[in-house]
Automatic annotation (TrEMBL):
PROSITE patterns recorded: PROKAR_LIPOPROTEIN
Annotated spans, Disordered: 28-48
Stated name of the protein: Lipoprotein
Classification lineage: Bacteria, Pseudomonadati, Myxococcota, Myxococcia, Myxococcales
Source species of the chain: Pseudomyxococcus hansupus
Length: 108
C-alpha cells in the first residue's frame, strides 16, 4: 500500500500542477489582447477636487502616516484601512525596537 501511495502521489501532484497552470499560451491568444491605457476602472479613480479647499483630505486620497520614538514621519501607507493606522504604527515601531508616538491620516 505504501508503494502505491509513493508512486501515485507524485503523479497526481504533477497532473494537478500541469492542469492548474493552464499550459503555455499560444501566439494567437496574445495577439488579440492590447494593454489598456488606464487599467484602473473609473469608479476607483479619485474625483476632481478630492482635497477640499479648506485643506481637509478627501476619503479617496487619505494615507496612513505614523511616528516612532525616533520622531521620523513614516508613510504614506495607502493600503491601510481606516481605523487600523494606529495599530499598524504600533506594530511597525515595535518591530523596529522603538516606541509608538502618534499616527495620522494625510493626503497621499
Amino acid at each position: 500500500m505504501k508503494n502505491q501511495i509513493k508512486v501515485a502521489l507524485p503523479l497526481l501532484l504533477g497532473a494537478l500542477w500541469g492542469v492548474g497552470c493552464g499550459g503555455p499560451m499560444d501566439e494567437e491568444g496574445m495577439a488579440g489582447e492590447t494593454p489598456a491605457a488606464n487599467p484602473i476602472p473609473e469608479q476607483y479613480l479619485e474625483p476632481e477636487g478630492s482635497v477640499d479647499g479648506d485643506g481637509t483630505v478627501g476619503a479617496l486620497r487619505a494615507c496612513c502616516f505614523f511616528r516612532c520614538s525616533d520622531n521620523v514621519l513614516r508613510g504614506p501607507y495607502p493600503n491601510i484601512e481606516y481605523g487600523n493606522c494606529t495599530n499598524y504604527g504600533k506594530y511597525r515601531c515595535a518591530s523596529k525596537g522603538m516606541a509608538f508616538k502618534n499616527s495620522s491620516w494625510r493626503d497621499c
